[in-house]
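Narrative of accomplishments. A recurring question from our advisory board has been how the design workflow behaves on a single, concrete structure rather than in aggregate. To address it, we present the structure tokens for one chain from the evaluation set, followed by the sequence designed for it. No filtering or post-editing was applied between the two.
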């Protein structure tokens, strides 16, 4: 039964749209960081490339800037660039930054069953944390590039 859930892309531990948008925006900035000189991207360029609603992107980029992951440059050639190298930014760091501190799980009296359920959930969470800690923005960028090279190009 559980293989059916996996094959149907069942998302037990789903990330929020905000995390997804942050990852997409940072991935877009990372793709421009690979050049010798990082070219600043405007919000509208990121929005156009990644289909992120501009009102969310504005909030996300402000949070990322305050956290030191992106820098903003003013002026006619301004925009946003990564503040650190992509290999220095883990996906866990991004998720924790965007999601904020998680509240403790249910503080109701702990029955045996509740304790068992909490232990299973903590194990699943620990595995997720390990995966996100290992992966960096650079890894995501490299996977993107590999897939782009294998996907067919259609020209008109």
């Amino acid at each position: 039964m559980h293989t059916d859930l996996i094959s149907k892309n069942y998302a037990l531990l789903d990330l929020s749209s905000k995390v997804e948008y942050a990852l997409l925006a940072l991935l877009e900035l990372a793709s421009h960081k690979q050049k010798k000189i990082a070219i600043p991207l405007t919000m509208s360029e990121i929005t156009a490339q990644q289909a992120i609603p501009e009102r969310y992107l504005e909030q996300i980029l402000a949070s990322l800037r305050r956290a030191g992951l992106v820098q903003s440059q003013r002026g006619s050639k301004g925009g946003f660039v990564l503040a650190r190298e992509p290999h220095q930014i883990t996906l866990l760091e991004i998720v924790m930054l965007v999601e904020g501190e998680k509240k403790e799980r249910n503080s109701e009296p702990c029955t045996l069953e509740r304790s068992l359920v909490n232990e299973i959930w903590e194990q699943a969470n620990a595995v997720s944390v390990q995966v996100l800690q290992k992966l960096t923005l650079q890894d995501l960028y490299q996977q993107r590039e590999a897939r782009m090279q294998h996907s067919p190009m259609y020209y008109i």
